[in-house]
Specification:
heterotetramer; A alpha/beta; B alpha/beta; C alpha+beta; D alpha/beta; A: alpha/beta; Rossmann fold; five-stranded parallel beta sheet; two-stranded antiparallel sheet; 12% strand; C: alpha+beta; Cytochrome-c3 Hydrogenase, chain B; four-stranded mixed beta sheet; three-stranded antiparallel beta sheet; 13 helices; 18% strand; globular
Chain lengths: 320, 584, 416, 146
């Protein structure tokens, strides 16, 4: 029996997802034995033309990481969709838009301006901005056109499964691969991770007081961080309660609060808004002034509550 | 106790052995004069006025009746010639010390003494010692005592100084036969504090009190000050009085609770324009109710403070009610009791002019409008308009000493100036000050006006948002007696049926927590005002008690897992609504 | 019109790249364009964020070298708040950082760059990868490579939460101390790491240097690129990855300048070309002369070989010996041969392994005081580290509340 | 619906609590008070039920403004303190909305009691006018998700 064909592809990403696969270490050999990797730009020397030559649907499953922020990536994932039986959005960026999705809180013009025109080291009197098509003495050069906003994978193509995380933990990858190889898969559209939030397994959950209220928020650098106590009980914003579990609370074990890379659980769509509802409920305040005083101690709510999920919020991006 | 027989003035009588003679005589209706005797104090036999003749066999003796113990077979004469002679002499001697004391003069008159042989002294204390004994033996304050001896003997306090030990109970003054002891400022003070006159520390609150039982006022009872007195204990035949009883807290398990905490009348002094507290003849409705009460201080007669029968009385409706400055609501009961007042005044003082100042006449109940019509016939004046001001600025002689009401009469479209002798303010009824505190205690709520809020104004008028907590009466809002009785009946029926049910009906909009998705983050736990959510440590789950949940949905909104949902208000339902109403 | 060759995507690169090669009529390369086809906009979308979140956000620029961004950002925050971390925190950071250098350098050698040598540049593309490497060196050796790397990563997870996108750094220190019960494992890994670094160099020696074909390729003229070189050096001008001075040497090997990170903008400028989203940094004082090498062009190189060229030695004895050996073999300093980067990389790995061992055995690293709480008002800060791929600079400006108003980042890949 | 400012008819989603504001709106109705049809109401049991997700969803669906209304603080709330939760979420949301490009004025919180039909009418009328002046929600202008 022929081994199932598997592919990996990356869009607007950092390479951490590839690194996560590499981090499977000895286990990668088992995976490699069971499948036939036909495309993986970061590790194997296959090119786009190789993919185009493949038969439609011939790849059993493709893992795609990264957000989509250029027309080239869009085209490529459409191509891969056609060639693949299953598409798995791999990692926070393709699942939720991820960190590149933070760009949706600003706009393309500002990004280009900050990247090429302003700043202490840009020397650019001609105000050169990279162009989709630019002439050169040797012929026209092409660059992908940047999209107005970064998108999660399922906002571009049909996605069968999601593996969350930034980075994706080893266990989730192995579980997912096992499930795919054995055909033991949950309904389409499932996130291949636990259905409960981080608090479910977090060691620090036990340390929550009977009635949790917060009268002032501290930023992590402002106070000594207790290594055992629940961050919220210390007045430090932790996205744990509104973030899908399965990450083994790695950040929290590193003594830093959760920033929500696993996204919300199934019953919640908009992670940041849900967090507002949950967090604000805990304020120890009863008057406008008291509430405002507590809100004043919270900085950058959008960038914090939607650290990884701006693209998958209801609004998806800054609207004006 | 052994019973013996004796004869008094020829009547044979039975008595207890060694019973004081004066008591036995009194039982027979034979009055023996005395100055130093008081039944609550041990007899002392010092004034000698109660001297009587006792014969036992052949032995004849003159004894003081107050402290002579009777024995079997004695014969007593209280008015024999010898007795009269002796008594006269005794009175004359007393007059020699206290020539101008009324009680002695009265006795002297009775015994035909016109000019005492030993002259008239100028003292007013007969040294009977009642005051000293009551202070020592009864009150146990030990403030008074005798000083010096012989003719110089006198009653005073230690070193003649004002005593710190004196509790100003006034017992000495009340027992003093000559009236030579007064407590300075006491009467005045009592009357000022108690407009209905002084009450004793042990008293029945008011005539209509239910249950109609005596109570002891802890603050004024002597026993609680000195440990003495207990006169009431001695005289109470039912032996019902026990000063050692303590306030105790009892825990009672109940299934339902009725909050019927009533109301409070608005403070009249808060309304400066009406001069309550400044002019003595401005009364609140409750003041007038007391004044007019047959059991009240005037026996139901209507007098001004100066003791005059008023010729004109103004009754002002809606004081503090239906007024944006105070209470926007209608107090509901004022119109009808104001009409009642007018009617009673007319009944008692036929020629008195009664003016009712009103905004609207709200005679909403059965027979009420008829009553209003009756009053119109009785000649009560009705002025539609609010009184703007009350003062005593007289324009001419006829207005002097009167209260001047200025009000616009909207019926005739002019401002009127009406002098009256007395004004009754129909003040707003208000919620009890601590209603809000109580509402938190019982997990129900009060409205902006401070009255308890019913669960539904039409469908659940006696229930509250908290199951098992019911409300009735003015605590829920202004209402008259028939409505209160009706509501109380409804509330008690509702309570009974709840108890009978044995099962509690849950809200249809309660929250629910999906165990599969709950991560046990506990955020919801502290948010529930009804403590319906508890954290199960073993399962690491939040658990919801549907019987306690009232369905506000706060936990649902806050649940970061979406594990909490609300029946009929699920997230998905609301999202669909949002989508729907924005579809076009 | 000549022929046009498009390599898209460039593979075995931790990032996105595309190469357009134009050949003239005779088939020689007339021009080549290295294009980076993506821009995510970190320099803009970090504006408005809380400064202290930068170590956790900017590391998503690169998931292969997240620790480099994490550390550069953390050091930048130290400077932003003008706060000095306690000694233990500095040592924890340095230990963590060198673990990362060791791990990344070996990853690069065996997984990314190495296959060309180990499997051979002419091997079929289906084999020219880590799997091919395994096939070539044998499962036993391959297993050793994988195991060593895994153990380093496990220690990193223990210390910094995650190996990919760690959470260690805070302004003025680190989030978590190293506990006595953890240090034994670190020591063991340090020991193994050192052995592994030695083994890797040996493998390079055996497979590459002993193979004349390969040596020919390394020393071939087409891979000879004389430019300026830049790297971080310590007080004694020895290679340092975590801290020090930026030093540049000219193509002839003379010191061109030596400056603190706070002055970087005086010395470094960036050129924008319309055909790539990536910018091209150059030495401001030499100036932009286009994509040419030599004394007159401001183009400079970074990364292992550049660092070795820009420094005067290594800070540890074994690495120093290898350093001397390399320059002797390749004909003295500076070496301009691009493919010698692989050798330099392994020398650095050895250096990192030696530093790890030193720090793991330093008792001060166990001090529980790992934080200095910042008290100053933040305004502007800069941080630099040597990422495996070269000098990495973070530069933030913030309002008084620590909310960023301007972000400038010069990443290693830009500079090569 | 016209999107130019002159003929612009805003769509305002109002979340009303069952006991005070919805009853207040009811009272406005029974008292024959007119308020602009621009306000579209959704009844919830308590303002504390209003999840910030509802607000964001409403904006995403094209609402020009969102009104949350509950019982007066501090003591009117039928459920004792649901209104406080609404108050807290409101201020935090209001701080975040501009980061998504939505003017904070497009979210409003009002306490309207069951007896304040007139206030409900006033708020609706006044808010509709205010949003008319402010113009349509930027969500309509933007292209949804690239």
């Amino acid at each position: 029996m022929a081994k199932p064909k598997v592919a990996f592809y990356w869009c607007a990403s950092c390479g951490g997802c590839e690194e996560a696969v590499v981090d499977l270490a000895e286990d990668i050999l088992k995976v490699v034995e069971a499948v036939d990797i036909v495309f993986w730009p970061c590790a194997l020397d296959f090119k786009k033309t190789d993919v185009e030559a493949m038969e439609d649907g011939s790849i059993a499953v493709t893992f795609i990481n990264g957000a989509i922020n250029s027309d080239e990536q869009e085209e490529m994932v459409h191509l891969i969709r056609k060639k693949s039986g299953l598409i798995v959005a791999f990692g926070a960026c393709s699942h939720l838009g991820g960190i590149p999705g933070l760009a949706n809180l600003t706009d393309k013009e500002s990004i280009l301006r900050a990247s090429y025109l302003t700043g202490p080291t840009n020397v650019n009197q001609e105000k050169t901005i990279p162009l989709a098509k630019s002439p050169s003495p040797d012929g026209e050069l092409h660059l992908p056109e940047l999209k107005a906003n970064a998108l999660a994978l399922d906002q571009v193509i049909d996605v069968d499964y999601y593996i969350p995380g930034c980075s994706v933990p080893k266990k989730l990858i192995l579980d997912a691969v096992t499930a795919i190889l054995t055909g033991n898969l949950p309904p389409k559209g499932s996130v291949l991770a636990p259905t409960r939030t981080n608090c479910d397994t977090c060691e620090r959950n036990k340390t929550k007081p009977e009635k949790l209220t917060i009268s002032k928020f501290y930023r992590p650098y402002e106070i000594e961080l207790d290594e055992e106590k629940c961050f919220l009980a210390q007045g430090v914003i932790c996205m744990g309660p509104v973030t899908r579990g399965g990450c083994d609370e790695r950040c929290i074990k590193g003594n830093m609060p959760c920033r929500g890379c696993f996204g919300p659980v199934d019953n919640v769509y908009d992670q940041g808004a849900k967090f507002i509802s949950a967090l604000a409920s805990l304020f120890d305040a009863k008057t406008d002034e008291e509430v405002q005083a507590i809100v004043d101690t919270i900085q950058d709510p959008a960038g914090t509550f939607y650290r990884f999920s701006v693209a998958k919020s209801y609004l998806g991006h800054k609207v004006s | 106790m052994e019973t013996i027989k004796l004869k008094i003035n020829g009547f044979e009588v039975e008595a207890f052995d060694r019973q004081p003679l004066i008591e036995v005589a009194e039982k027979l209706g034979i009055k023996i004069p005395t100055l130093c005797h008081n039944p609550i104090i041990e007899p002392y036999g010092v004034c000698r006025v109660c001297t009587v003749e006792v014969r036992h066999g052949r032995r004849v003796r003159m004894v003081t009746a107050c402290n002579y113990p009777v024995t079997n077979g004695i014969e007593v004469f209280t008015e024999s010639e010898r007795v009269i002679r002796n008594r006269k002499m005794i009175i004359e001697w007393l007059l020699a010390r206290c020539g101008n004391v009324p009680v002695l003069n009265k006795l002297a008159e009775q015994y035909g003494i016109t000019e005492p042989r030993f002259g008239r002294g100028t003292d007013d204390c007969i040294l009977c010692g009642l005051c000293v004994r009551v202070c020592q033996d009864v009150v146990k304050a030990n403030v008074l005592g005798f000083f010096e001896r012989g003719p110089k003997r006198y009653v005073s306090t230690a070193f003649d100084q004002t005593s710190d030990l004196c509790i100003t109970c006034g017992a000495c003054a009340s027992v003093c036969p000559t009236g030579c002891i007064t407590v300075e400022g006491l009467q005045e003070g009592i009357y000022k504090e108690m407009p209905m006159g002084p009450i004793t520390p042990i008293h029945i609150d008011f005539m209509q009190a239910v249950p109609k039982k005596a109570v002891i006022d802890h603050d004024s009872c002597i026993n609680f000050k000195t440990g003495g007195c207990k006169v009431c204990v001695d005289v109470c035949e039912a032996e019902a009085i026990d000063h050692s009883m303590q306030e105790t807290e009892k825990e009672v398990d109940v299934g339902t609770i009725l909050l019927s905490t009533g109301f409070k009348l608005q403070d009249g002094e808060a309304l400066k324009e009406y001069g309550y507290g400044k002019y003595p003849n401005i009364l609140t409705s409750l003041d007038f109710e007391v004044l007019n009460n047959a059991n009240g201080p005037t026996g139901g007669k209507i007098f001004t403070q100066e003791g005059k029968v008023p010729k004109a009385i103004g009754i002002i409706h809606c004081v503090g009610s239906r007024d944006k400055k105070y209470h926007e609501y209608c107090s509901r009961v004022c119109c009808m009791y104001a009409l009642k007042f007018a009617h009673l005044i007319k009944e008692k003082i036929h020629d008195c002019e009664v003016y009712n100042f009103y905004i609207d006449m709200r005679c909403f109940g059965k027979g009420y409008e008829e009553f209003y019509n009756r009053l119109l016939k009785e000649g009560v004046n009705f002025v539609r308009g609010k009184v703007a001001e009350i003062n005593d600025a007289a324009l001419d002689k006829s207005e002097e000493g009167k209260l001047i009401l200025r009000a616009e009469d909207t019926m005739i479209g002019t401002v009127r100036r009406i002098p009256v002798d007395m004004v009754v303010l129909c003040l707003a009824v208000e919620a009890q000050e601590d209603a809000k505190e109580l509402s938190h205690f019982f997990s129900c709520s009060v409205g902006r006006d401070g009255f308890f809020i019913e669960k539904h104004p039409k469908l659940a008028p006696v229930s509250t948002a908290a199951d098992g907590i019911f409300i009735a009466g003015m605590a829920q809002g202004p209402k008259d007696i028939p409505d209160t009785v009706a509501q109380a009946g409804a509330a008690s029926s509702a309570m009974l049926s709840l108890i009978q049910q044995k099962e509690v009906e849950a809200e249809v909009v309660t929250a629910m927590i999906d165990e599969e998705t709950c991560s046990g983050c506990q955020i919801c736990v502290g948010l529930c005002p009804y403590t319906a959510i508890t954290y199960n440590k073993d399962k690491n789950k939040s658990e919801l008690n549907e019987a306690l949940c009232k369905g506000c949905g706060t936990c649902v909104a806050a649940c970061p897992s979406g594990a909490a949902q609300q029946k009929n208000f699920r997230d998905s339902q609301i999202f669909a609504e949002i989508k729907g109403i924005l579809a076009v | 019109m000549g022929q046009r060759i498009t390599i898209d995507p460039i593979t075995r690169l931790e990032g996105h790249g595309k190469i357009e090669i134009f050949l003239d009529d005779s088939g020689n390369v007339s021009n080549a364009y290295f294009q980076v086809p993506e821009l995510r906009g970190f320099e803009q979308f970090c504006v408005g964020r809380c400064a202290e979140e930068m170590p956790r956000i900017t590391q998503r620029i690169c998931g292969v070298c997240p620790t480099a961004h994490h550390m550069a950002a953390t050091k930048c925050l130290d400077d932003l708040w003008k706060v000095d971390p306690p000694p233990a925190a500095k040592k924890i950071r340095e230990l963590f950082y060198n673990l990362f250098m060791l791990e990344d350098h070996t990853l690069h050698f065996f997984y990314l760059g190495g296959p060309d040598f180990i499997v051979g540049p002419t091997a079929p593309k289906a084999e020219r990868n880590i799997l091919g490497v395994l096939g070539k060196v044998g499962l036993e050796v391959g297993g050793k490579v994988i195991k060593a790397r895994r153990e380093i990563r496990e220690v990193m997870e223990e210390m910094g939460g995650k190996a990919i996108h760690p959470v260690l750094g805070l302004p003025g220190g680190v989030a978590k101390r190293v506990k006595p019960e953890e240090i034994e494992k670190i020591k063991a890994v340090a020991e193994e790491g050192l052995e592994f670094a030695k083994f890797s160099l040996q493998a390079f020696n055996d497979i590459v240097l002993k193979n004349e074909e390969y040596v020919k390729i390394i020393t071939a003229d087409i891979y000879n690129q004389p430019t300026y070189y830049m790297g971080l050096v310590d007080d004694k001008n020895r290679v340092n990855y975590y801290d020090g001075y930026l030093r540049t040497v000219s193509p002839s090997g003379k010191e061109f300048n030596r400056f603190k990170i706070q002055d970087y903008a005086e010395h470094i400028a960036e050129q924008t070309e319309p055909w790539s989203y990536i910018k091209f940094p150059y030495l401001r004082k030499v100036g932009w002369k286009g994509f040419v090498g030599g004394e007159n062009s401001g183009v400079y190189q970074v990364a292992p070989l550049a660092r070795l060229n820009a420094a005067e030695g290594m800070s540890t004895p074994l690495a120093q010996a290898e350093y001397e050996k390399m320059y002797k073999t390749l004909g003295g300093k500076p070496v301009h041969l691009t493919l010698a980067y692989h050798w330099a990389r392994l020398i650095e790995a050895l250096n990192a392994a030696e530093i790890i061992k030193q720090l793991a055995n330093d008792p001060e690293i166990l001090d529980p005081k790992v934080r200095t709480i910042p008290t100053n008002t933040p305004k502007e800060g800069m941080g630099v580290v040597e990422a495996p791929r070269g000098t990495l600079i973070h530069h933030y400006k913030s309002d008084s509340n620590g909310i960023l108003t301007e972000v400038n980042i010069i990443v290693a890949t830009q500079q090569n | 619906m016209s999107s130019d400012k002159s003929g612009f008819e805003p769509r305002i989603v109002a979340f009303l609590c069952n006991w005070c504001s919805y009853t207040g709106a009811d009272l406005a109705g029974t008292a024959r008070m007119k308020y602009p049809a621009n306000v579209r109401t959704i009844r919830v049991m308590c303002s504390g039920r209003v999840d910030a997700q509802f607000v964001m969803k409403a904006f995403a669906e094209g609402a020009d403004a969102v009104l949350i209304s509950g019982c007066h603080t501090p003591s009117d709330c039928h459920y004792q303190e649901g209104n406080f939760k609404a108050l807290r979420r409101y201020y935090l949301l209001k701080k975040m909305l501009p980061q998504f490009g939505i003017e904070p004025e497009r979210l409003r919180l009002e306490w309207i009691s069951a007896a304040e039909g007139d206030k409900f009418q006033e708020v609706c009328t006044e808010y509709t006018e205010q949003i008319k002046k402010l113009g349509p929600s930027p969500v309509k202008k933007g292209v949804k998700n690239g």
